[in-house]
Amino acid sequence: MPIIETVEAFPVSIPLNHPYKDANRIETHSRDVVVKLTASGGAIGWGAGSPRSFPTGETQSSAFTVLKEYLLPLIKGKDPFYLEAIHRDMESTIPFHYAPKSAIDCALHDLQGRILDQPVYNLLGGKIRDEMPSFDILPLESPEKTAEIAAAAMAEGTLAFKVKMNQDVKTSVARVQKVREATGDKVMLVVDANTTWTPKLAVSVCAMIEEYNVTMVEQPVPGHDIEGMAFITKNTRVRIGADESMRPDYMAELMRRRAADVVNIKINREGGLLPSKKAAALAEANGIEGLCGSVIQGALIDAAAAHLFASTPAIVYNESGKAPAWHDLDIVTGFRVEKGMVKVPEGPGLGVEVNEKILRKFLAKD
Known about the structure:
- By secondary structure, this protein is an alpha/beta fold.
- The protein is built from 14 helices and 16 strands.
């Protein structure tokens, strides 16, 4: 059996072609940690995670340190097919720190697929779909500017949007109105308050935007407030989505309380593809719909997300696949978004190839 002989990690910051702003931060780069695993026999697996200071408290620097000091030494010499054992050992060695664990998990899946000459979706249960609609996030701009961004993205084929909102309710509602007017009834609109509302304010705003045919309102209150999420879900007609409340240490209570109609399953936050499949199964068992989520991230993570939605019936919405629209140059080739649809990569492993020259060009300086 093969063993993991060489382990490497790289902090990679890829410039965005336009700044991203939500209620909590402004981003100019996607800041990922990339893992390269080489097995005996020469097969190579790549994976990445995108650490978020909000809401999990991870940074690129901390994730890179965790990889170098704790996790990569742990897996060197291991059988890359012993996923459950590796996840158990990572969690017992250092709890939380989901983004670096996700990078390792995705690299292990890529490595397995290349050893077996199989796409990752076949390792996750087999493919049930070849594509899902693309998705774009509309930052906190004026209602008019937000509508312009949406119209331009729609002209390029984007079929779904997430409209960012905050405590400026009047402007936030106007932002949703202008985007709906600009896009018509053909696209899906999700709104996201990024945890900035109270439960009663959320119920009030949901009533205000219901006429704009909003598919769901995502994470109106802080992630730990499962009671608040349950209150909102029971008192609105609009679907309520859980994002920050889908942290691994929150999700069981969220499901038990049926405190959301949709759950945002993010590979980065759940700790990889294996934990994401378990989260989707938990949602399915509780009759809750799944969304294949993402953050501002590189296409290596988008590729892993595509294999997740390709193989998971409980996932009925998608927001992955933004990397080609957000980056003029990425570290991978082979990931495609065409005519508004995110394509599932074919070929062994994740189905994309890493350009190490470009990767080194984007190595984080700090």
